[in-house]
């Protein structure tokens, strides 16, 4: 049995951690460096930072955040949001990130995944897929913060990302994001079953039970959560204790 990972996610805007619902209505949660340090010390297996500041100033701020985080944490961390070129990737990795997350730019130019995997290694490329359920029962890939429908089937797109060289897939349910009703198990399972690379469940976690559930009902490699950790609803240690109690293999907190 593979060891499952628990990954706190920190959305960063103008140098602060924020959180919203369905990608909207952002509230400030705290300092990303201090929060990352705390999570690293308290059992997080990895961390994910999403830079939601779209401006050039935001990008410079994020590079500074990445440098400071790299000095404070001992676990691997991924940085995504607004990464469009090989130069963007290089800047983030050189600042100390272990991996980068690519979303909108891959939809615009899929070759970026292949080029970045070749230059930096597949293991450092996380393909993020924001997916929304449509009335016909299919999930469409959404871009621009979950607002723009590309019309691309999310399951087929995940397969394509694997073929292009992505090292892992991070699917987020736009419908579930921040709602705390639990992960979209159907979406998650469909993507897990479609690809051979690791998949990280994201979007909708409201309690420790939801994390156990996604591990029990799908074969994801990791579960990502934000609100439940930022708001102190549950600790990483408590999540891992429940996982162990239910027979899910996790690392020590």
TrEMBL record:
Protein name as annotated: Imidazole glycerol phosphate synthase subunit HisF
First-tier enzyme category under EC: lyase
Record-linked PANTHER family: IMIDAZOLE GLYCEROL PHOSPHATE SYNTHASE HISHF, IMIDAZOLE GLYCEROL PHOSPHATE SYNTHASE SUBUNIT HISF/H IGP SYNTHASE SUBUNIT HISF/H
Quaternary data: Heterodimer of HisH and HisF.
InterPro entries for the chain: Aldolase_TIM, His_biosynth, HisF, IGPS_HisA/HisF, RibuloseP-bd_barrel
Annotated family: Belongs to the HisA/HisF family.
Molecular function via GO: imidazoleglycerol-phosphate synthase activity; lyase activity
Metabolic or biological pathway: Amino-acid biosynthesis; L-histidine biosynthesis; L-histidine from 5-phospho-alpha-D-ribose 1-diphosphate: step 5/9
Compartments (UniProt record): Cytoplasm
CDD domains, A to Z: HisF
One annotated GO biological process: L-histidine biosynthetic process
Annotated TM spans: none
Any Pfam family matching the protein: His_biosynth
EC nos: 4.3.2.10
A GO CC term attached to the entry: cytoplasm
Active site as annotated: 11, 130
NCBIfam families tied to this protein: hisF
Function (record text): IGPS catalyzes the conversion of PRFAR and glutamine to IGP, AICAR and glutamate. The HisF subunit catalyzes the cyclization activity that produces IGP and AICAR from PRFAR using the ammonia provided by the HisH subunit.
Reaction(s) this enzyme catalyzes, per UniProt: 5-[(5-phospho-1-deoxy-D-ribulos-1-ylimino)methylamino]-1-(5-phospho-beta-D-ribosyl)imidazole-4-carboxamide + L-glutamine = D-erythro-1-(imidazol-4-yl)glycerol 3-phosphate + 5-amino-1-(5-phospho-beta-D-ribosyl)imidazole-4-carboxamide + L-glutamate + H(+)
Species this protein is from: Lederbergia citri
């Amino acid at each position: 049995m593979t060891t499952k990972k628990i990954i706190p996610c920190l959305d960063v805007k103008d140098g602060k951690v924020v959180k919203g619902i369905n990608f909207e209505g952002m509230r400030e949660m705290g300092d990303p460096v201090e929060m990352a340090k705390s999570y690293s010390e308290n059992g997080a297996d990895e961390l994910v930072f999403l830079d939601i500041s779209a401006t050039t100033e935001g990008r410079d701020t994020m590079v500074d955040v990445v440098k400071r985080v790299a000095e404070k944490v001992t676990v691997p961390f991924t940085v995504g949001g607004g990464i469009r070129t090989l130069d963007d990737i290089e800047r983030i990795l050189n600042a100390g990130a272990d991996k980068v997350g690519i979303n909108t730019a891959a939809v615009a130019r899929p070759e970026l995944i292949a080029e970045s995997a070749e230059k930096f290694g597949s293991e450092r490329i996380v393909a993020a897929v924001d997916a929304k359920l449509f009335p016909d029962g299919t999930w469409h890939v959404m871009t621009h913060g979950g607002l723009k429908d590309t019309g691309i089937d999310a399951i087929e797109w995940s397969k394509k990302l694997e073929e292009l060289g992505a090292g892992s897939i991070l699917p987020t349910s736009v419908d579930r994001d921040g709602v705390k009703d639990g992960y979209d198990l159907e979406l998650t399972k469909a993507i897990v079953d479609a690809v051979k690379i690791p998949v990280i469940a994201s979007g909708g976690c409201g309690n420790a039970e939801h994390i156990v559930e996604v591990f029990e009902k799908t074969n994801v490699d990791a579960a990502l959560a934000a609100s439940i950790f930022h708001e102190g609803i549950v600790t990483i240690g408590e999540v891992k204790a429940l996982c162990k109690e239910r027979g899910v293999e996790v690392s020590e907190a």
